[in-house]
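Much of our argument rests on the idea that a fold can be written as discrete symbols. Part of our work consisted of pairing the sequence of a single chain with a tokenised description of its backbone. No coordinates are needed to read the tokens, only the vocabulary itself. The record that follows shows the chain in one-letter code together with its fold in token form.
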Amino acid sequence: MTIAFAAAIVRHLGPCRIAVEARTVPGLAAELALLGCDTKPQSVDVVVTESDALSAPLLARYPAARALAVLPRQVQAQSLDDALFKAGWRRLPGAIAMSTLEQLTGGQAPQPSFYERAPDGYRGLLNTSGPATLSALGRWTLAAERVRPGDRVLLCGPDAADGQVVLEACARARSVEVDAPRASHAPRSFDVIVAFDASSGWAEELDRYAQLLKLDGRLVAGWSESNRQKPADWASLQQRLSVEYLIERQFVQAPGIIVPRDVPQGEVTDLSWRIAVAAKGPLGGEDSRAHFVHPAFGTSQAQVVAFAEGYDNPWLYRTMVQMGERLADADLLVRLAEHVASEARPGSADQGAALAVLGYRVLEARAADVVPVLLGAFNDYWQQGGDSPHVVRWRVSLAFLAGRLAELLGERAIAKHWYARAASDDWQHFSAILATKAIGAAFFVARILLAEQEAELAWSWFERGVEIALQAAARDHRQELGTGDGLLPFYLPELAEVIDMGSQCANALANRHLWARDPGLFWRQVDIKRFGIASWTLDVTKENERLRQQLGQA
């Protein structure tokens, strides 16, 4: 476990100047040194020790240490916490996660446990013990998981100051602010609002938050059972939320439970806390299009993230499109996409994005009966779409997706037709990273042709995949990547995927001599999971979930 301990320490504290006082973990200093830590420092930032070696003299030897990493040895979490809290330490907020809290639920101290020096006079959630304290940390951790990169966050409620410490350490927000009494905030100025036990009436607070949130904002709001201002029941809360919000998730915390539990909509009686996660309704944002700035990419001039220029209603992007940030409720996401697909301007990027969301949902569900209608809508989009970069993005993406859906029907000729469209369209007009769809389309045409024993034609399509990858690699990437604070963190990984997909086409060509001898041997040389890996992973996840349900019913 030495390597794992070292990795956990550096993951939470970074490479640092570290004193290792853990005699029963041989080789820990060496592993930390290999991860960039100075293990023979003149001045110490972090002390690593074991719970049975903790003592006042040991800590006194390192008065400048800012953090502790403690390896518990047969000690209950609360005993370890209480001793360190009394000595002037508190939980390291960046090490608080749902997995950590689950361990604490059973009284176990995490391996290792992390602490930092408490500011003078601090007394709060991070240096007090007991179920109520841990439950409050569970709520703030739940909130931190709902914050997106670059968000401006407003926190409301009696322990919001502690929530600020947790969110600033655990979430990639641009700023986290605590609401003040009678504070005046500009309308549409926050990306996320977190409110736990706000003191005013719950309905009035929801209306206020709706005014403060951007059109793609998110609300995390909860009330304790003891709060006289709480909603009477779930139905009352849902009815009021539905006026301005799309309800994504509902959570409850039963008495003494640390980690909030996700529950279906409905009344739950054995609760101490009722928590709702909801998205501000993004529809109707066309009039405020000019005010849209993506919080994570606003400083970039790259065309890939020029959503205000590319979409009639750019507020739809984070709520409906962006992986990891869009609506968490799959059915709610589909309903939103259906509305946008039918109501958006024909041929717009908005409509193309909505059709893609619907198409992947159909592919995931293997809903073959819906495919013909969807292919007709894709074809209409292909005919109506203009040549703006974001429209081209969806035109190429929909052509690739249409090929997948046609294969689901067993319509191989139609699939080849759509794949050929994707592979021959002007993907470069949008970005080099759109080449993933073009290369994937060329690869899948070749795969179909090999199954049809048309090997010579197949090799030409593999060659087309290599050619597209080389074209993408040869572009000037600096403009698309951005500079300084405007760097796009996803660009290089997606460019690497372009190159990797091209390399699999090259793999196929390099091993073509194996095809006639043994097709299975040939295909084992090619990593087909590189094509549509995200949807492949999702398919496997869904299948595993179905299997778990079947086993549970057996």
About this structure: The two ends are 38 Å apart (CA to CA). The longest helix spans residues 389-409. The chain has three domains: 2-128, 138-280, 285-545. The mean pLDDT is 91.
